[in-house]
C-alpha cells in the first residue's frame, strides 16, 4: 500500500506547479516576457517561487528544474523565447543530461 505524501513532497509539488504555471504563462502574457527580458529578478519577485527555483530559473538551469518536477514541454518555452540565457540548442543539450529523479547529469544514451 502506498503511503501518503509528506509535507516535503507537497512542498516539492507546489514548487514544481509554480514553475510550470510561470512557463505556461509565458505563452499567453507578452508583458511578462518583456519584464523577464528587461529585469528577470524583479519580474520573478512577484511569483511565489522557492529561493532555489528562483535561483535555478535565473541561472537557466533547465536540467535542475526538470529534476525538481518542472514539465519539459513547459520548460521549452523558456528556450523558445530565449529567456534566462537559454537558447533552443542549450535546452536540447541540457534536458538530455537531466535525471528526472534529481536533476543530476547523466550520460545521454543517444550521444
Characterise the protein shown here.
The chain is mainly α. The protein is built from seven helices and no strands.
> Which secondary-structure class do the elements indicate?
mainly alpha
Uncertain stretches of 5 or more adjacent residues: 103-111
**What is the helix fraction of residues, given as a range?**
55-70%
Q: Can you summarize the main beta sheet? A: none
The pLDDT mean sits at 83
Structural shape: globular
What gyration radius follows from the Cα positions, in whole Å?
14 Å
- Report how far apart the termini are: 39 Å
Instruction: Write the element-wise H/E pattern from the N-terminal end onward.
Output: HHHHHHH
Q: Into which percentage range does the β-strand content fall?
A: under 5%
Produce a short descriptive summary.
This protein is mainly alpha-helical.
Describe the secondary-structure layout.
Elements: H1 7-26, H2 30-38, H3 40-44, H4 51-59, H5 62-67, H6 72-80, H7 88-96
Helix pairs in contact: 1-6, 6-7
Describe this protein with a few key phrases.
single chain; 111 residues; mainly alpha; globular; disordered C terminus
Amino acid at each position: 500500500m502506498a503511503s501518503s505524501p509528506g509535507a516535503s513532497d507537497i512542498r516539492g509539488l507546489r514548487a514544481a506547479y509554480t514553475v510550470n504555471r510561470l512557463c505556461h504563462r509565458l505563452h499567453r502574457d507578452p508583458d511578462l516576457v518583456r519584464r523577464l527580458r528587461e529585469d528577470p529578478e524583479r519580474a520573478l519577485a512577484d511569483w511565489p517561487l522557492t529561493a532555489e527555483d528562483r535561483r535555478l530559473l535565473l541561472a537557466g538551469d533547465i536540467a535542475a528544474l526538470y529534476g525538481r518536477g518542472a514539465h519539459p514541454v513547459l520548460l521549452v518555452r523558456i528556450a523558445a523565447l530565449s529567456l534566462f540565457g537559454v537558447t533552443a540548442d542549450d535546452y536540447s543539450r541540457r534536458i538530455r543530461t537531466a535525471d528526472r529523479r534529481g536533476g543530476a547529469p547523466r550520460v545521454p544514451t543517444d550521444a
